[in-house]
Amino acid sequence: MSRRRAALHAAAQLLCSAAVLGWLARDAAERGLRLDLAALAPAPLLLALVVKALSLIVHQHRLHRALPAPRPAWGLVTAAGLIGGLLNMVLPARAGDAGLVAALATRLGVGWAPATAAVARVTLMEIWVFGLACLGALRAAWRLHALDPARVDGVAAVLAAGVVGLGLGALGLRAWARRRRPDTGAGPALGGGPIGVDLGLTVLEIGAMIAAFTLAIQAAGAQAADPLSTTTLILAVSATAAALLPPAWGAGPAAACALVLGAQNVPQDVILRAAAAWWIVSQGPMAALGLLSLGLAPQLLRSPPAAAP
Fold first, then answer.
1. What are the pLDDT digits (tens) for 147-160?
2. In CA terms, which of 69, 180, 190, 249 is 20 to 30 Å from 155?
C-alpha cells in the first residue's frame, strides 16, 4: 500500500471512529448521562487488568512454542509479540502481525516461512476457539428477549460454518508446515509439539480474556442476565468492528456495549461506564506491556543490517 493510500485509509478509519463516538456522545448528552469513573469498583477492575495481562503472556508463550527449534530466547519472542500487539491497537485487521512476522524473520533470524506459519497458527487457533465460544454465547443469547431467535439461529449457522472452515485451515497449515524440509533453506516451518497442548493453552488464553472483560463490566455495575455469554457477544461485535475501526480508538467496543447491554435493558449510565471499563481493560495491559517491551528491546523495530556485497 502506498503512503497516500495508507494515509487515506487511516483518515477514513478516524472519521468512522469519530462518527461512532460522536453519535454515542450525542445520545448520552441528550439523555443527560455523565461518565462517572469514580463509580467503578476498584477490586474487580484491578483483577480484570491482571487477568488480561496474564492472557497476553499465555498468547506470547504460544507464539514461542509455535516456532521451530532452535527457538530464539523466550524473552525476545515475547517482546516481539507484545510490540506487534501494540501496533495492532492502532492498526485495523491485525496489521501489526505483519510487523511481528518481519521482526521474527529478520531480527530474530527465524526465517520468513517459519515466522509466517507460526503467527498464522497462533492466530487461526485463537480465532477457532473464540468462534466456539461465540457459538456457546449465541446459544445462551436466546435468554435475551430483545434478540430474535430466528436471527440468532442464522448467525449461529454462519458462525458454525466459519469455525469448521478455520479448523480445516489450521489442519491445512499444519500439513503444509510438516512438508517443509531443512533443505529448502527455511527448515521446519512449524514447531509447537502436539496440537492438543496448544489447544489447551488457547482455551486458557481465550477463557482468561473473557473472564477479564466479564470482571470489567461487573466493575461498572452492569447486571447482565448471563455475564460470560454477554461478554462473549460484546467481544464478537467488537472483533467484527475491529476490521474497520482500530480498537485503541474505542468506537467498536463502545458501540458493542451499547448494543448488547442495551438489549438487556441495562441503564444507560451503567452502559457508558461499562464501555469505559472495557476500554481500560482492553488497552491498558497491552499498552503497558508493549511499551515496556519496546523500551527493553528497541532493536526489534530497527531495519536489519544490509547484507555485505
1. 555 545 555 555 55
2. 249
